[in-house]
Amino acid sequence: MQKCSIRCVIPILVLISYSILFAQDQEFESADSTITAPRSLIFIPADWENVKPDAVETEMADLLTNAAIDLDIMEVVDWLYADDVIYDESIEVTEQIDPSLALFIGEYGKIDHVYLFKVNAFFQEGRADRADDRTSADKLAAFFINLLDDEKTNIPEPHAKNIYTEIEIEFNLIDVRKAEMMRNFIIRAQFTGGRRFYSRTEAMDILYQRIQEELKRQYLSSFSIHNLEGGIKLSRNPDDQVINKGDLLEIFEPDQIEYVNGAEIRTSGESAAYCRVQEQTLKYYSTSLLRQWAPIDTNFVAREFTKHNYGFALEIPAPVSDAYYSFNLRLFYSPIQMWDWGGVFRIQRVEDSWNELNWGIGFGLFSSYKLFNISRFALKARLDADFDFFFKEDDYNESVTLVLGSLSPGLCAEFVFSQNTDIYFHAGYRFFGKSNDWQVSTDEDEPDIDAYWNEASPEMNISGTFVNIGFRFIFN
Fold first, then answer.
1. What is the pLDDT of residue 1?
2. What is the pTM of this model?
3. Class assignment of domain 2-27+310-475?
């Protein structure tokens, strides 16, 4: 029985591997066809007299540069390159780098865009009049983060556990090729809660996210929604960069814009959904919805999505019983795509035909295809191919092992809670998961031998219908 089940599962593993390669080919084909022109940029602190190793301008320059590098949509030149140019060309800078010098640095290094920035505000204070921005999980994390705080002080401070942090940076964006100032804008990050170290860390994370949002607006294609009838249709302008069939887009609420002393302050709209380009005409792009977690309206915008999503899920059987229990960790390679695949690891406890409980571990591959998607719900067809290893002692007190190969077609109903979390119910039927061929492991040079039993050997049977509940987390 065991050998038969393994022989049956191996071809399925080959088929799943083929589907994995097929899914990768589709993804790579889409990625290779993108013609978004690469650009190079550099962030340069205008307050040059304050650029010292321990200055906040240095910290901000590093954070802005790393945020742009991690976004991976353009070439980013380290801000210290400006220092090299100033030194090599013997340029004297006593106070500030003005736009003309920033333009020279850009021309010297053949850099397309220069972001000349100034830190307008960076301060912290205890506040009783502001609500704590932290969730319960944040407060738990703050306890551990504060253990790493190397700036602790014993000096009493009012409202020391509710610190307000504000960071404001003003940017001048210079187009080196056109030798002109493109934009003047401000990015703010504010956070209230926890002690100084924690509040500062959270504010810096917010700043990191907002500079990435700004760079996405600047360098990725953006499209307005024409209508929502029969899918999401996007307006296409002749001047827009071309996107191709299969490209992914992320849909956002419209940005909120205000101006302070002529500088633009833009608050990004919340993300609402992912969609995929299906076809294009001279005026429109037609898309199919891949994942939605918030309502969508016609005043929303769609932007290119260049990151790759991954995911992991924790699964348990439903209902849990003494006869069968399994805890699964499932990894997803492309959870928002039409085709998805990944691997699974499980720890399980199963009752055999002697009514004894046996512990085991399992490994497998799976592939799934999205049948349809509406709002916060999706239905997928999934195929799993698994190998499970169970352990026991025979009547000679020898450690013995049983290997089960199984094949499990099924359906998976997914309910979306947010952009990064959902719950799903996976139901199906497991074939071939039945055997009583226990083996005693021997040396590598010798074949395994059958276990010894005083009566008929205990049979393991994990075949049949199953229902699993999974809690999934998506990240990129």
1. 47
2. 0.75
3. mainly beta
